[in-house]
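B., you asked whether I could sanity-check this one before it goes into the benchmark set. Here's the sequence:
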Amino acid sequence: MREALFVKQNTEKWKRFNELQEANPDELADRFVEITNDLAYSKTFYPNSKTTAYLNGLASKLHRSVYKNKKEKSNRFVHFWRTELPLLFLEHKKQVIYALAFFLVSCAIGAISAKYDDTFIRLILGDGYVNMTNDNISKGDPFGVYKQENPVLMFVQIGANNIFVAIYTFVLGIIFSFGSIVSLFRNGVMLGSFQYFFFSKGLGLQSVLVIWIHGTLEISAIVLAGAAGLVLGNSMLFPKTYTRKASILKGAKDGLKIVLGLVPIFIIAAFFESFITRHTEMPMWLSSFILLTSAAFIIWYVFIYPVKIYKKTLI
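And here's what the prediction gave me:
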């Protein structure tokens, strides 16, 4: 069957399912089965088409509705992080990849700029921080900045600041996604120049083993917050089959869920930075273990686990 005919035969049904707000669980389950059958057919014959992408999003929406109406023994919050949030990462996988690409390019720009302009690092990081770090390096304690404040106070301040940055990056997406891109760019340039600063001092590996104990989770969460901003902005620019109002409401809701879902990650990152990173003398194997475990968790939770959950819904 030609794709155009397939779409024509099912358009009204898909629109009706898409506009579905409330229904009994049995009806929702029946509609979910119908959509997954259509999705399987579309994936077989039109794997890279917009129709397949649309049906994939609609199937995810109906899946969440089924779960919402299903009586769960587990806590609602547990269900959110175990099922709902990972499926959002899968549904908006493109935005996650775009946000990561923007951020990595920005990091490269920051590092290259710092390499070829001696004043760039001071412009980005500030004279106070650069001078303090140089003093710490001369004293043989290059990462002494993490030991200066009370760990509990650091935990509160850093956690609150990171959550604010994430919400700020998300909300900026309302400016047609451009605002979130700018925020990702600023943070990426700062990270690139910051990391180059230590490499230029011959402290590259040591800086990675110390700073990325907390930075792996913290930076990953900021990138995901940028992706949430792109979800919001793209919902305004590309409503697809939704009305623009419905698209914006969905984009805002999905983006906000992603940002709120990042809060535990920011809290853990703040804990690492306040209580763990200060122990710069810890064995290399231990810091490497924390860093690699954090990276593995992010890759698994954002990219691998959501696919496993989605495949279960098709069985």
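One thing to flag: The CA atoms of residues 305 and 313 lie 13 Å apart. Otherwise nothing jumped out at me.
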